[in-house]
Structures are given as structure tokens and as C-alpha cells.
Amino acid sequence: METTPAHDSVAVRRRNLGSVLRHVAEHGPCARTEIAVATGLSHASVTTLVADLTARGLLREDGVLNSGGRGRPRRLLRMVPRRAVTVAVQISAEQLRVAVADLAGAIVWQDAVPHHSAAGVPATMADAVATAVRRAEAAAPPGAELVRVAVAMAGPVADDDAQTVLVAPDFGWLRPVRLRALIAARLPGRTCPIDVINDANAAALAEYHAQPRRSRGVVYIAAGTGIGGGVVLDGRIHTGSHGIAGEPGHMPVAIDGPPCACGAHGCLVGYAGPEALLTAAGLGDLLRRNGLGPAADQLTQALDRGDERARTAADLAGRALGTAILSITALLDIDEVILGGTLAQWFPWLEPSIRHQLAGRQALVPDIEPAVTRARLGTDATLLGVIEFARRAALADPATVPRNAQALNRSALPAS
């Protein structure tokens, strides 16, 4: 569709509204002059945009700052976070975790329910997600506008308008699924945007923001049923051309390694994936019999008491991870690699071998080698990441919140 000057003007205004709201959300309370300097907008434009956001109930004046000079006191602006909410849904093998969060990212309601989805039938999953969204919307604070729904699940998601789930073997989805469209069709009358993102990408975003030092570029590598991950650059998920960037499990780390289900040889998952590591440690039967959790705990105990077979398996996995990190660093020049899932559980025994692999290059160029750290958020990482993704998307497009008399009245409410 050809864009018109009027269409461009509307798009620019929406972006500018988002710029102002994001600045107040991150730096408020602040004055209009501070917003103008930070965003590069003229003071007159900021005044107009602030009036618009106030009419939507998203900003309110919060006191006066007197600089002590001759100029007029500056009126400070603060965001009203509960004027709008987002719904985040995390799809796992057996259940849905769902949360309602305000524009500050604070969770105001959450629940976990089994989805009973039939393997290979995406429509049943869409039914379960739509039901969860309706329940979450009903639990939102009175007067809050639902402005975004974000859903995370295993499997690469195409970075296109359809946000197609390309494949999800854990759910029996062996062909592309337009999950967003399926969910939207079950939520008639709701105009807020719906996003579908990869669960490891969501976890990567959450871990990026949870780290004590802020890095420009982070790669997240997590082991669960296999090895997944994500790339976060300057606070944004990077998905690549086809939605599969940040999937390190199928990065070859050995030219003559064992064949992998992906068609390559010597992939990282064949050395550091839970099944490979547990099998090498002599715990493969326990994994197949009792599942990942008990087997992972048993390996932790074996490593802790110095079991030779367990230590050998962890050493091989650590060397494979170190090799992958060397390749990732050379390609992306990132600041930090974060290990999550069972890799975080086994981190104390993996780290020495990882460091050994990195040592040669680090001795030559010590200032550019990434920090290798342990994930901090555990099993909450994905849900927190979906919440953060939805929050940032909502802040970027505040025009989804209507302007009306009720919004004007709510703008006088105290921020929570």
C-alpha cells in the first residue's frame, strides 16, 4: 500500500508520543524541558504531545520543581502506570502461565492453568490461550485499558507481520502455524495488538535487564529439553532474517562430531544438551524413566561429590560451550554470555572448561572477550521477559489508549 503524507504524519506523531511516554516512564518525574532535550523534539511539540498523553490518562502532573532562579518553576510529569495493562502468556509443555502487568512492569495478577492442548492441533492451543486472555482481562484493575497481549512459546517465530511459528516439535507442530491469527480469531471485538515470540528470546530479554551491569549486547544460552537461546542488542531482541537468530543448540562445534537431527554434524546440543550430558554421565536411563528434573538433580549431586564420570561429561560440555562462545563472540562482538536452564544449575562445573577454551584468545585481546555469567531468574525468566516485551511495545505506541472524559479524570489519580 502506498503511503500518503497524511499517513506519514500520523505515524510520526505516534512514534513521538511513544518517545515522550518512554522517557517519562524511564526517567520521570521530569519536566517538559527535560523531555525536549532528551528526545530532540521542540518544546512546543512536547507540550502538545504531553497534552495528548494526559488526555489519555497516561501522564499526570506531579508537583513543581523550583530551580531557585528567575525562571518559572517546572511542572513535573509522572506516568500513571495502571491506566493501561498488558497480558503475558507463557506456553509450556503442560500449562499456561498468564499474568496481567501495568506499564511499569508490575504484575497485578497471575495464574497457571493446564492447557490440555492436543498434540499436533494448534487450534486447541489457541482456544486455551484465548480463554486465559479473557480471564486475565477480567482480573485487570478497574478502568485499566488492555493495550497489548504477548504470547511466548517454544519454536522459532518468523519476524514478519504474521509472526508465524515455523515449527514446534514439542507440540507436534511440524508445519508453520499462524498462531497469532488463530488467537485473534478467538478474541473478537478486541482491538489491542497480539504478539507471538519465542520463549527463549523472552527469557533472554528478561535476563538482559536483570544483570547488574548493563551490556550493549548479550547472548543467552539455555538448556531445557534441548538448547535454545536469544540475542539482545541495545535492549531489543534480535531475531535475524527468519526468526531463528540466537538458536545456539545447532551451532557446530566439531567438524567430525556425531550427526544431529538438524542435518549437521557436531552440534552444541550433542555435547552440552541435557540428554547428551546426562547420558555421558551415566544418567540416561534415569532421564528417560523419571524426566529431566530428577536426572538433573542427580547429576548435580554427582558433580558435587566429585564423581569422575560426571566430571568428565561436564568437562566435555564446558569445552563445547567455550568453543561455541568463541564463534559467537567473533561474529557478534557481544559483551556477555548468560547461561540458563540446567546450564545455570551446572555452571560451577562447566565454567572452568569454558574459561580454558577462552583463555588463548583472551590472553591476546583481553578487553573484548565476553563475560560468561549464570542466569539469575530461573524458571520465571520467560514470563518476565514476555511482560517486558509487551510493556515496551505498549509504551512505544500509547495511541492505543483512547482519549475520553474518563481518561482525563483518571489522569489525576496517584501513580502506583
TrEMBL record:
It holds the Pfam family MarR_2. SUPFAM superfamilies: Actin-like ATPase domain (SSF53067), Winged helix' DNA-binding domain (SSF46785). Gene3D superfamilies: 3.30.420.40, Winged helix-like DNA-binding domain superfamily/Winged helix DNA-binding domain. Residues 20-60 form the HTH marR-type domain. Belongs to the ROK (NagC/XylR) family. PANTHER family: BIFUNCTIONAL UDP-N-ACETYLGLUCOSAMINE 2-EPIMERASE_N-ACETYLMANNOSAMINE KINASE (PTHR18964:SF149), ROK (REPRESSOR, ORF, KINASE) FAMILY (PTHR18964). This is ROK family transcriptional regulator.
